[in-house]
Amino acid sequence: MAYKLSDKEKDAHKMMKELLRKPIKLKAPNFKPGRMILFTYRAKFDKNPYDMSPMIIVLGRSKKYTLGLNWNWCPPKARIKVMDYIMKKNQKNMDKGKEIDLDYTMIKSIIKGLGPIVRLYLNNRISPKGVPVPSYQYYKAIDLRSENFIGISSKEAWKVAKANKKKKKRGKK
Question: What are the domain boundaries of the chain?
Fold first, then answer.
């Protein structure tokens, strides 16, 4: 049985299809923390499960690595909660027309228990072309089903996240 897209997912696919018509050459400014980017990735060690088509919000970048929150690893029901938190933390910036400011320390409390959604990417394994997502499209983008997991299915990835969340809750009691 084929997966049936919801109306929100159809809108997200339509939006991304438009953005994909004009992929750009990715450069360092595209990886500024707070920016959302869709790109292809070749893992160095493909024995471990990974997402070949990450859609991330950049949390940090060095010469060698990019740290990002990969929405494809985030269970669909948790995505809106995480995005609401990010937008709430950035309300002042948005009101002033500034870009979203984000780093790991800002989101670590909200993502606790969601499993492996924060990922470290080797810059030399990120495709040279990709698609930056404008911040006004972030909510629509998180409805996108763009995952291309290697070595694990979407459901398995989200089960890992769900299991980690339950473990964290049990550990607090």
Answer: 7-166
Cβ contacts of 151 within 8 Å, gap of 6 or more: 46, 47, 48, 49, 50
Could you tell me the two tokens for 102? Answer: 């984000």
Torsions phi, psi of 88, nearest 5? -65, -45
Nearest to 82 by CA among 95, 72, 71: 71
pLDDT digit string (tens) for 47-77?
Answer: 777 888 899 999 999 999 999 999 988 888 8
Choose the weakest-confidence range: 95-99, 107-111, 135-139, 156-160: 156-160
Say what the pLDDT of residue 166 is. Answer: 56
Dihedral sign of CA atoms 66, 82, 35, 18 in order: positive
Please state the three-class secondary structure of the chain as a single string: CCCCCCHHHHHHHHHHHHHHCCCEECCHHHHCCCCEEEEEECCCCCCCCEECCCEEEEEEECCCEEEEEEHHHCCHHHHHHHHHHHHHHCHHHHHCCCCCCCCHHHHHHHHCCCCCCEEEEEHHHEEEEEEEECHHHHHHHCCCCCCCEECCCHHHHHHHHHHHHHHHHHHHC
